[in-house]
Each structure stands twice: as structure tokens, then as C-alpha cells.
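Quick one:
INPUT:
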């Protein structure tokens, strides 16, 4: 469906959006959902070690979507940059491969299998 400049986009179903961002458990062969959730602490982690860059660009909305998606998948991330500059998202080295896969799914519109 093509939307013209004077038309509004259909409303976003937040539950549907969240479900689409979550990745299947088989993508995490080393831990169950409950194990990942039990070990997840969004506030207590070495933020200064999130130096593995997985995305950069000038779109703040895309950077926010990536951050939310990473968090939904128990990956810590750090967004750097700001107004008038390029945004960068860094993750911990051990999360780099998985985070890049998530970023690719978002930026290329790939639906997880």
C-alpha cells in the first residue's frame, strides 16, 4: 500500500511490533529464555566496554528502534552521537555477532525465520 503525502499511516499495534522484534529461542542455542531473562540486568553492566560498533547512521529513529530491539533480545547497547552528528551504537564484544544480525534484520527489512 502506497501512502501519499497527505495521507496518514495506519496506527501501529504495539504488541504486534514487539512480537516482530523478538527473536526465536532457537537463535540463542546457549541459553533458554528464562536463563537470559534471569541474567539480564539493564542497569548494571560495563557500559564503557560497549565498544563494538554494530550500526552508525544519521537517523535517530532508526537508532532508537535498534536500541529497543537489542534490549528486547537481552543485548546491552550504548548509543553515541547526537544532534548534527552521526549516531553510533556499540555493544559488548560477546554480543557483536548477534547484534549485527538484529541490525541487519531491521535495516534490510528481513523477517526472522
Amino acid at each position: 500500500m502506497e501512502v501519499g503525502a497527505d495521507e496518514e499511516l495506519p496506527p501501529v499495534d504495539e504488541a504486534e511490533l514487539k512480537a516482530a522484534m523478538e527473536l526465536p529461542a532457537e537463535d540463542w542455542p546457549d541459553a533458554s529464555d528464562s536463563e537470559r531473562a534471569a541474567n539480564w540486568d539493564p542497569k548494571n553492566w560495563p557500559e564503557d566496554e560497549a565498544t563494538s560498533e554494530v550500526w552508525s547512521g544519521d537517523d535517530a529513529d532508526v537508532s532508537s528502534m535498534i536500541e529497543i530491539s537489542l534490549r528486547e533480545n537481552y543485548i546491552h547497547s550504548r548509543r553515541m552521537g547526537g544532534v548534527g552528528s552521526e549516531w553510533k551504537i556499540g555493544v559488548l564484544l560477546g554480543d557483536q555477532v548477534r547484534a549485527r544480525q538484529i541490525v541487519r534484520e531491521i535495516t534490510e527489512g528481513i523477517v526472522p525465520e
